[in-house]
Amino acid sequence: MHALDGIRVLDLGTYLAGPFCATVLGEFGAEVIKVERPGTGDNLRRFGTGTECGDTLVWLSESRNKRSVTIDLGDPRGTELARELIAGADVVIENFRPGVLERLNLGYDVIQELNPRAILLRVSAYGQSGPNRDLPGFARIAHAFSGLALLAGEPDGPPVTPGSTSLADYVTGLYGVIGVLLALRAREATGRGQCIDLALYETIFRALDELVPAYQQSGFVRERMGADTVNVLPHSHYRTRDGHWIAIACTNDDMFARLAKAMERPELADPGELGTTRARLAARDRVNELVSGWVGTLTRDEVLARCREAQVPAGPLHSVADIFADPQYRHRENIVLADSRIGPLAVPGVLPSLSDTPGEIRWLGPALGADTDDVLTGLLHRTEAEIARLRADGVV
User: Which InterPro entries does the UniProt record give (predicted)?
Assistant: First the structure.
């Protein structure tokens, strides 16, 4: 049994944000029908590292558990096929630019007429309304517009990419999952679906802690701080004697006292010294120099062992090679070896972990149109002759 057994999702999206929402829903049992352009398919098939099967590693990993159907939505016959699929769907997901779905005669008003119980998730760069509504955008633009990118980097250097360039796609996809689950819960009471409107930038903006209230209250504009954190200290990255990097996160005075003891400098935590957050923030450079100096005299394993013994939050800065070797990742099955069209492929595991209705990876990204015939015959009751004519005309 899966948590979303019986839920059918129609994935009309491209690239990553909307489709990632469909991927997560599919991991927990939803039937996901991925609609792609005949001949070329979703651009995600060509985004990332190519493989011998013709699709990228990104596609194989992030289009897991989906059925691929090719339909030309620009052809009236293709639009009719999509309308029939919508009539039988619980969730429809799209991330076209605003107005495209309406031009295809598949807007939310049409969806409501076809299927009042259907839930529509709409993902776009700036949302379905506002002065920027019609502008294009990807995750990098969302990082910039949300305020995140300007915070990433060293104080005297340029803004840099805050980790993955696809971060906003993944975060927005997760907010999409939340929206769909909330809408499904509401449908239990009302019997009706609803429309969910998400902008890439606003999901990142939502995650920037006190940026908004701090500016409203005092006019404080946070700037780049490198690895440091604005309100607590020490809370940064430090280099060990053997050339590795570790993170230390002391978020209150008790944690700093434990760190000072581990450093064999317990006097640093005295109230008249650096024992309060206020005092440490006022002496940021000195605190970081003290911690850096101590970490730099020890190997990574020695620092982590001392922090572990003192109950100080600390951890290594992992490369992907470190992650593959880490026993915690192995124990939690955070990396799964799954069958694919290029053989066994390591991919991130399923999250979250549910005790009674866990998710699973049933297959990785399918070949283009692999399920077209099955869906058109099984769900839309087209004959083989009808499908052959549609295929000959490039509709499917």
Answer: CoA-transferase_III_domain, CoA-Trfase_fam_III, CoA-Trfase_III_dom3_sf, CoA-Trfase_III_dom_1_sf
d(CA 10, CA 33): 5
Strand, coil or helix: 122: strand
Residue with tokens 């006097």: 267
Q: What is the pLDDT of residues 222-246, one digit of tens each?
A: 999 999 999 999 999 999 999 999 9
The answer to whether 57 and 51 are in contact (CB under 8 A) is yes
Residue 223 backbone phi and psi in degrees, to 5? -115, 175
Cα within 13 Å of Cα(334), Cβ side: 11
- Given the structure tokens 């209150």, which residue do they identify? 252
C-alpha distances out from residue 36 to 19, 42, 126, 396, Å:
12, 6, 24, 9
The helix/strand/coil state of 93 is: strand
Please report the sign of the dihedral spanned by the C-alpha atoms of residue 342, residue 344, residue 347, residue 350: positive
Distance between CA 145 and CA 168 in Å, rounded? 11
Over residues 284-301, the pLDDT tens digits come to 999 999 999 999 999 999
CA distance 126 to 176: 15
As a whole number of Å, the CA-based R_g of the chain is 25
8 A C-beta contact, residue 198 and residue 127: yes
Condensed to tens digits (0 to 9), the pLDDT of residues 11-21 reads: 999 999 999 99
Q: How far is CA 211 from each of CA 142, 151, 224, 231, rounded to the nearest angstrom?
A: 16, 11, 13, 11
Over the stretch 342-385, which tens digit does the pLDDT of each residue have?
Answer: 999 999 999 999 999 999 999 999 999 999 999 999 999 999 99
Q: Measured between alpha carbons, how far is 62 from 173 in angstroms, rounded to an integer?
A: 12
Which residue among the candidates 42, 90, 169, 253 is catalytic per the annotation?
169
Report cis status (omega within 30 of 0) of the bond before 234. yes
Give the helix/strand (H/E) hosting 195.
strand 195-199
Q: Is the distance from CB of 135 to CB of 201 less than 8 angstroms?
A: no
Strand partners, 91: 9, 119
Domains parsed from the chain with CATH numbers: 8-206+331-392 (3.40.50.10540), 235-239+245-316 (3.30.1540.10)
